[in-house]
Specification:
This protein has about 190 residues and is an alpha+beta fold. It has 2 domains: about 30 residues; about 160 residues, no CATH class. The chain is built from 3 helices and 10 strands, in the order αβββββαβββββα.
């Protein structure tokens, strides 16, 4: 059976598409690139390059005030609490704070980077980063220096995004502004302890 040249071309395109689909279906999951054992921003599309289970401590600092959030048990247990709200008492007393933290930290972990560009120290003020609104330090081990520091700057001109300076990657990124609102709520704490 002889195929017309046009039919043969379409069959070749179809076969290539099926092969690509099968390859993508079976491709290994992509993970962030590693630099000294830690992912770098250039290959991460999220503000947090690690799952929450790997993070031990998150510190928020604003106007000389620091809010400390940590895992109550070993890293990976995801039993989060505020540093001043040590896990004492029964579960019913801790439940509202735990639900608040779980919801807000899950949203923080889902924060996607919309745009990323190289840091130019001469333009920090243009992005509201010369004097950031607040900073976030993320530690993978409570005894180690921060693995990542975020400085939150001004809103983007359209008002829908916000600038964030990420160290040690020396990058400026934009994230949806509602993710920054979520972080300010974490900084303020749940309504019961404000």
């Amino acid at each position: 059976m002889k195929l017309e040249p046009g039919t043969a071309a379409w069959l070749a395109v179809l076969a290539a598409g099926v092969a690509l689909w099968v390859w993508l279906l079976n491709a290994p999951e992509q993970t962030p690139a590693m630099t000294h054992g830690e992912p770098t921003l250039e290959h991460s599309d999220r503000l947090l390059a690690w799952p929450l289970a790997r993070i031990a401590v998150i510190d928020f600092a604003q106007d000389g005030r620091t809010v400390h959030i940590e895992q109550a048990g070993p890293v990976g247990t995801q039993a989060w609490h505020y540093g001043h709200d040590a896990p004492a008492g029964d579960d019913s007393e801790r439940a509202p704070t735990a639900r608040f933290l779980d919801a807000h930290l899950a949203m923080f972990a889902a924060a996607r980077i919309e745009r990323s560009f190289a840091l130019d120290p001469d333009t920090l003020a243009d992005y509201g980063l010369a004097a950031p609104a607040f900073t976030v330090r993320i530690q993978l081990d409570a005894r180690a220096p921060p693995a990542r520091e975020l400085a939150v700057g001004a809103r983007t001109p359209d008002g829908f995004g916000q600038y964030v300076h990420i160290e040690p990657d020396s990058r400026i990124v934009t994230v949806p502004a509602y993710h920054v609102t979520n972080l300010t709520e974490l900084l303020a704490g749940p309504p019961a302890i404000r």
